Every structure is written in C-alpha cells, then in structure tokens.
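Quick illustration, no need to memorize.
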Amino acid sequence: MSEITTVGLDLAKNVFQAHGADSSARAVLRRKLRRDQVLAFFSQLPPCVVAMEACGGVHFWGREIGKLGHEVRLIPPAYVKPFVKRQKNDAADAEAICEAALRPTMRFVPVKSEETQGAAMVFRVRELLIRQRTQAINALRGHLAEFGQIVPQGAANAARLIAIVEDPDSGLPADATDTLKVLVAALANLEAEIARLDSEIARGAKESEVARRLMTVPGIGPLIGTAIAVLAPPPETFRRGRDFAAWLGLVPRQHSTGGKQRLGATTKMESGPSGGC
C-alpha cells in the first residue's frame, strides 16, 4: 500500500468514515471507524494531512488528532459539496473532503482552542436568549391584539405590553391576564439573563488586551470588540484589511458573466480566507 499523505474524515455521532489518498491523490484507504476507534486509528498512521468539514464537534477532533502529530485542515462544508460525486453517502463525503483538501486554492478554518470555544459560547447563548425574548414579546403583542390592545413592534415597547397586562383596568379577561402573566414572567427572566451575559462580556472585554485595543476604534464597544477578538481568525490569516471585510461578508453579491460586472446587495456571508464555523 502506498503511503497515506491525506485523509478525509467524515464525522458522525457513532460511525465515522475515513478516506485516505497517497501523494498522487490515488485512493489507498476506505474504512469505517467507530467513535472509540478514531484516535487509535490515527495514532498508527504516519504524520499526514487530516481534513474534516468545519461543523459541530470538529474542533474537538481537530485538537485531539493534532496532538498525534497530524496536520489538521478544516474545510467549510460549502466548499466540500462540489466534490461529492452523484450519490451522497458517508464514503462519498469522506472522498470529497479528501479531494477538497488537495486543492491548492482551498480555504481552511483554523482549529479553535478550548478557551476560544468557551469564550465564544457566551455569544451563542446570548443570541438564543434574544431570539426567545423576541418570541415572548411577539406572543404578548399578538395575544393583546386579540383584545384590541395594539402596541408597535420592537423590544423598546415591551414595557408598554407588560403595563397593559398588569393594569387591572385594561379590560382583559381574568383568565387571559393570568395566562399572559406567565409570558411576562418569562420575559423578565430572559431580560435578567441577557443583562448578566452582557456584564460577563463587558468583564471579558476589560480583561482582553485585543478587545481593549479594538474599543479605541470609534463605533466599537465591548460586545463587538470581544466578538472580533474571540470569533475572528488570527490576523495573520488575512493578507489585507479588505480580506477581513470579505470574511465579515461586507462585500456585494456578484452575478457577473461575459465581462459584465453585476453587483448586488451586501452578502453578510463569511466568505474570506477562513470562513466557516
């Protein structure tokens, strides 16, 4: 068997699929691995490139496989999809990952440390709570509209919604008032939790040298400064500031052909040198 230089690993909950290729990109290995066999398998391989799709749990495996001496490359799933041949299955996905990793112009996602992942989690939890707060506010507004109480949209008007529910002279039925107070209590709890996370982010911004430097830029506060420090790839990943803007998605959508440029709205999609999770 030729020496394996690149392995494409398709992650799963229990059964993983590995596809190995030699220096000429010829397939020399196809194997299914149970979860408890993955690290033992890679510990027996000579140092090589191990490629995976940048998805949930991939940073854990990237760190563990990297400790065994392999070079780990994480690829955004959108960049792997064009390499899938016809039918989709685990073996085809692993082969596509391997082929994508061999492309000289492929873009990769850096493996995150446990500390970076932990610091980034506060933003995901905060985003979830904000969505739940919006749901609670919209539910309150919709239910009150059924009784002729109309309040404008926006979180800034949540206090008006609560005031109507708590006003004994609002004309709401007693049963409806008792039920709506459940939403009011949930909304108050969400507001408290979001405020607690905001305080945690502000504390982290004071402790981070990078975030403090970013906050000297007009328009950047603790939230944005900490988000850039935690979520953005290392600065050396980008060749110029324009590439960082592209990673943020601050570029127009292109639909150009025949030498004619057609630029659309801002994509707001991570598309730079290391876009992805």
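The CA atoms of residues 79 and 100 lie 7 Å apart.
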